[in-house]
Amino acid sequence: MERKEIINIGIDHIHPHPENPRKNLGDLSELAESLKKNGVMQNLTVIPLEGQPGEYMTIIGHRRHGAAQLAGITELPCRIVEGMSRKEQLSTMLEENMQRNDLTIYEQAQGFQMMLDLGETEQTIADKTGFSKTTIRHRLNIAQLDQETLQKKEQDDGFQLSLKDLYTLEQVENIKTRNKILKEAHSSRDIATKALYATAEEKKNKKIKQIEKMLKPLGVEKAPKGAENEQWSGKWLVIKEIDLDKEVPKKISLNETDPVFYLPYYRSVRLIKRVKKGKNSDTPEEARRKQKDRDMKQIKVKLKEMSAVRKEFIQNILSGKIEALKDEHQVQEKIWNMLFNIHTGLYPSSMRSFFTGKEDYKCSAEEREQSQAQVDGLSFTHSMLVVMHYSIETIGDIYDWQGYFRPETGKTIAAAYEILKPYGWTFGDEEEQLLNGAHDLYVKPKK
């Protein structure tokens, strides 16, 4: 029951509600100065503290209470409400607080989740708070994240957590993966980049499951452990390769009498079978040569995968999925220096091929026209990134005819990836070894 009259209550007898959705009252100094000068113009709403006569708990007015303490005010005007259930208390605080625009991401997410737990729906929350259902749905997804980690990132001034990056993280379906990304990310930009990779990985795995389902009736099982490392040993024959960057085929047909296995390999699924053993008449030198050829092919496959990931990363920069740098001049200068050093030649067709994925003569007139429109719409920095990608694609092999690593080529390619690092680019040890010559697949110089 609400008492209509407003009475003054000693500030020491008013206590904050432990379930107030606003966990951080923020900077109260400005409000405290206003209260000193003008007094408390708006009353608090409080409820009696059960079992403690004369003591009250705040429902509405937590910031005013905190600022009044800071200002040295001894009494506050209050309206007392009696008989409120816990649900009514929480609903009142949530409706009051969720309309404020200075709540943290964490507080908004927790507040909307509490309202949902109290029986509200997205529609009723939208009606009561004025937020759109889309925004509410975003915040509820944020509420699923590990809240301790979220708070730490939000309170880290150097991290600069943004809603845009959290919305990108939301596109990752697996909540455990989301939390792993949030925990391991060293910056807000890093969240977005890792989330894009994770989303692409989830899409790839979905396609693999579709293919597995189609292969099961054909008696095709997953390749035995170790088959991936034997791809270039001459023990396996690839009879079909399904590109995971394209749509999954509606039907897979096989005409094989020998057992066939499937092997997820980079951005494809390979259907392979064992090579039947025959009499080996190779000389030691021929065996070394064949092994060297297999190693070089494997390097090419790995570099091709890196190239595909690099192109996808640049496409995400062009589309805005990866946020632009605040100062792009340094990136432009680095790209220019790299292109100048390798004497890059630039043609309109090479720019168009970035968008079409094929050589100009293989494109229709309509494809050339559409891709040229995309080229014309690029900013200067984006154009340079496309040229850089093309230049690396055409730089030539990273090894010579004998299988020895070419340091200058590796250094140039590595420089391109260094340019992408401010955007959030990362790769693992194996990729670095391919670019610095330390990988076991290269022929080692004789000492």
Q: How are the SSEs placed, and which strands pair?
A:
Layout: E1 7-10, E2 14-15, H1 29-38, E3 44-48, E4 56-60, H2 62-71, E5 75-80, H3 86-97, H4 105-117, H5 122-129, H6 133-143, H7 147-155, H8 163-170, H9 175-184, H10 188-215, E6 221-222, E7 236-243, E8 261-265, E9 268-274, H11 284-319, H12 329-341, H13 348-356, H14 365-376, H15 380-393, H16 407-420, H17 429-436
Parallel strand pairs: 2-4, 3-5, 6-8
Antiparallel strand pairs: 1-5, 3-4, 7-9, 8-9
Key features of this structure:
447 residues, alpha/beta, Arc Repressor Mutant, subunit A, five-stranded mixed sheet, four-stranded mixed sheet, 9 strands, 10% strand
Q: Write the CATH architecture name of the largest domain.
A: Orthogonal Bundle
Distance from first to last alpha carbon = 92 Å
Low-confidence stretches: none
The chain-level mean pLDDT equals 87
Largest beta sheet: what is the strand line-up?
Answer: 1-5-3-4-2
Task: Look at the structure and give the CATH class of the largest domain.
Answer: Mainly Alpha
The domain tally reads 3
Please tell me what the overall shape is.
elongated
Cα Rg: 31 Å
Task: Characterize the structure shown.
This protein has a five-stranded mixed sheet. The protein has a four-stranded mixed sheet with strand order 6-8-9-7, with helices on one face. It has 17 helices and nine strands. With 447 residues, it is of the alpha/beta class. The protein folds into three domains: 7-192, Orthogonal Bundle (Arc Repressor Mutant, subunit A), CATH 1.10.10; 219-274, no CATH class; 286-436, no CATH class. Helix 16 packs across helix 17 (429-436). Strand 3 (44-48) and strand 4 form a beta hairpin. Helices cover 50% and strands 10% of the residues.
